[in-house]
Design a protein that fits this description.
With about 90 residues, the chain is mostly beta strands.
Amino acid sequence: KIENVYRLQIMNATESVQYFRISVSGLPGLSLEPVENVLIESTQSRWVAVTVRSPYDVAASGSHPIEFQVTFQDGSAQVAEKSVFIVPR
């Protein structure tokens, strides 16, 4: 598998503690670690390191668009952020 590591800054602008779910899409077979929910205190932000993995044979070498989705645990709101997944030669 090919791995890319990302740092995401997640901000909780609400007045209560929130759990957030992080997911990724854009290439077939992508997996994300860690998969547990992220706890962020009210009106706080947190940097979260995540590893995205792709099978070797899914994409040609180069830069491929992906998208992270950060969702409230209850599904009431979602934010999407674009990025790229780099496949070496």
